[in-house]
Design a protein that fits this description.
Layout (H helix, E strand, L loop, with lengths): L5 H10 L5 E4 L4 E2 L2 E2 L2 E8 L2 E8 L10 H17 L3 E5 L11 H16 L5 E5 L2 E3 L1 H7 L3 E5 L3 E3 L11 H6 L5 E3 L2 H14 L25 H5 L6 E3 L7 E8 L2 E9 L6 H16 L4 E7 L12 H15 L4 E10 L1 H6 L8 E5 L3 E3 L3 H8 L1 H4 L5 H14 L4 H6 L5 E3 L4 H11 L18
Parallel strand pairs: 5-6, 6-7, 7-9, 8-10, 9-11, 14-15, 15-16, 16-17, 16-18, 17-19
Antiparallel strand pairs: 1-4, 2-3, 4-5, 12-13, 13-14
C-alpha cells in the first residue's frame, strides 16, 4: 500500500467506526505518482458507507483521468450496493497538460453524481480548496459541509470573499460551516444516522427520549423533536424560515418552520424547497409548521426573483410523495397556506392550533375589504382596525371555521401537538401514491 496521502487517510479515519476502512484501488497511479485520492468503504454507526478523500499532500491533490477513475469505481460500488457516498474535497485543480483529458474526467464524475442523486445520500465536505469543476461536483451533493478555512468557488474570486465558507452558507450552498475537519465528520455522522441508506430503504428508527421543552411558538421544533435529535440545516440562509432534520419517537422527519412576523423571502422559499426535495427523494416524512403573514413582495432589485423561488416552492410541495403533515400554529395568510399546507400542496393531514387564523389575506387587509363601512367615522381608525382584525381572526378566519369548511382536518390544543403529530405519522406510515407517467416536471429555475 502507498504510504503517502496521510492527510486523506487521517480524514477518512475520523469518519469510519474505530477509524477502520477498506481501501479500494490503493496502488493506482497517475503520471508515475500515486493517484491523489484515497477511496474507501467502511462503516459509520454500523452502516456501510463509501467515501473518498482528495490527497492534498500528493501533487497538491490535482486530478487526472486515473484519479477520476478511482472515484468513478467508488460511485459504481455505491450504486450496486445502495450505499451513501461522502466526498472530502481538498485539491488545487487538475493536471494541466494542454489536453481536454481532465475536463472529460470531471465531466464523467459530475455525471456520476447526477445519476446517483436521489438514489443514495451524497455528502460533500469542503476541507480545503474546491474550485472549478470540482466545485460543480461537490455542490451537486445532497448536503455540502464546509470547514471554516475552506474555499469553494467556480472561478477565482480575485480580491473578494466570495470563496469563503461563510459566503457559501449565506448563499444557501453550504448546509453548515464546521470549525474543522473533525467537527465536519461529526456532522456527517449525524446526517448519515438520520438519512436512509438509499431511496428504497426505510426511514431510520432509533432509541429516543421525549423532549424536555414545552411546545410553544418560540420553541416549536424543540417542543416536538426527540431530545437531542434536532439537526438544523442552512441556518445562515434565509432569515425567516428554519429547516432541520430530527427524530420523533425515534423516526427521522424533516422539520420546516415558517414562524415569524416577517414575510417569507426568496431565500426562505429556496431553503424550504431544498429540504422538501431532499426529504422526498428518500421518503422522509415532512412536517411543516406555519405562522406567517405570507410571501414577501418583489423588490426592483429582485426582479421577480421571489415569484420564481416561490413557484419552485409550490412545485416542490405539490410533487412530493413523502408523508406531508402541516400544522398552523398562528397566522396562515394567502398563497403561503396554499403552497405549503393546503390541499393543493398535497398535505396528507392538516392540523391547526385552536388559536390559529387561516384566511386569504392578512386580517388588517380583510377588515378594509369586508368591513370598511365599520371604520367610517371612528375617532381612532387604527385602534378600531386592530379590534376588527382580532374579531375577524376569531370568527371568519378561525381554525374552527376552517375545519367546518374542510380546509383543515382537525383543531388541537398546543399541549397536544407532539402526540397529534406522532399519531399522524403512525397513521400515514403505509402511505402509497403513484403519479402520472412523465420524465420530470418543468417548474421555473
Amino acid at each position: 500500500m502507498d504510504n503517502t496521502a496521510t492527510i486523506a487517510r487521517e480524514r477518512l479515519s475520523l469518519l469510519f467506526d474505530n477509524g477502520a476502512f477498506t481501501e479500494l484501488d490503493a496502488l493506482r497511479q497517475e503520471k508515475d505518482a500515486p493517484a491523489a485520492v484515497v477511496c474507501a468503504q467502511g462503516y459509520v454507526d454500523g452502516q456501510p458507507v463509501c467515501a473518498f478523500a482528495q490527497a492534498s499532500d500528493i501533487n497538491s491533490g490535482v486530478l487526472g483521468r486515473n484519479t477520476a477513475g478511482k472515484i468513478k469505481r467508488l460511485y459504481a460500488l455505491a450504486a450496486k450496493t445502495g450505499t451513501p457516498i461522502v466526498g472530502i474535497y481538498d485539491s488545487n485543480g487538475v493536471y494541466v497538460d494542454g489536453t481536454a483529458d481532465a475536463l472529460t474526467a470531471y465531466g464523467e464524475l459530475i455525471a456520476c453524481t447526477a445519476k446517483l442523486s436521489g438514489v443514495v445520500p451524497q455528502i460533500s465536505v469542503i476541507a480545503g480548496v474546491c474550485a472549478g469543476s470540482a466545485a460543480l461536483m461537490a455542490a451537486s451533493a445532497d448536503f455540502v459541509l464546509c470547514t471554516e478555512q475552506s474555499e469553494l468557488y467556480l472561478t477565482p474570486p480575485f480580491g473578494t470573499d466570495a470563496a469563503t465558507a461563510q459566503t457559501a452558507a449565506k448563499n444557501g450552498l453550504a448546509a453548515a460551516v464546521c470549525a474543522d475537519v473533525a467537527a465536519a465528520m461529526e456532522q456527517v455522522k449525524a446526517l448519515l444516522c438520520l438519512m436512509p441508506s438509499n431511496n428504497l430503504a426505510g426511514v431510520p428508527i432509533c432509541e429516543y427520549a421525549a423532549p424536555a421543552a414545552a411546545c410553544t411558538k418560540d420553541a416549536i421544533m424543540n417542543g416536538i423533536a426527540d431530545q437531542g435529535s434536532l439537526l438544523p440545516l442552512y441556518e445562515a440562509y434565509g432569515d425567516t424560515a428554519c429547516t432541520a432534520l430530527a427524530t420523533m419517537r425515534g423516526m427521522t422527519v424533516g422539520l420546516i418552520t415558517a414562524c415569524s412576523k416577517e414575510a417569507l423571502t426568496a431565500d426562505d422559499a429556496a431553503k424550504i424547497a431544498r429540504l422538501v426535495r431532499t426529504c422526498d427523494a428518500f421518503s422522509v416524512p415532512i412536517i411543516t409548521l406555519l405562522d406567517t403573514p405570507g410571501f414577501a413582495c418583489d423588490t426592483e432589485a429582485a426582479r421577480n426573483g421571489s415569484l420564481r423561488a416561490m413557484t419552485q416552492l409550490c412545485g416542490a410541495y405539490a410533487e412530493a410523495t413523502a408523508v406531508k403533515i402541516a400544522l398552523v400554529i398562528g397566522e396562515a395568510s394567502g398563497a403561503a397556506f396554499s403552497a405549503m399546507a393546503g390541499r393543493g400542496a398535497g398535505s396528507d393531514l392538516l392540523l391547526a392550533w385552536d388559536c390559529a387564523a387561516i384566511a386569504p389575506m392578512r386580517p388588517e387587509a380583510a377588515v378594509e375589504f369586508l368591513w370598511h363601512d365599520k371604520l367610517k367615522g371612528a375617532q381612532d381608525v387604527n385602534a378600531l382596525r386592530r379590534t376588527l382584525a382580532d374579531e375577524y381572526c376569531r370568527t371568519l378566519a378561525s381554525a374552527e371555521q376552517a375545519a367546518k369548511l374542510g380546509a383543515i382536518d382537525n383543531v388541537i390544543a398546543p399541549a397536544a401537538t407532539r402526540d397529534a403529530l406522532i399519531a399522524a405519522l403512525d397513521m400515514l406510515e403505509g402511505k402509497r401514491i403513484s403519479r402520472m407517467p412523465k420524465k420530470h416536471s418543468n417548474i421555473p429555475f
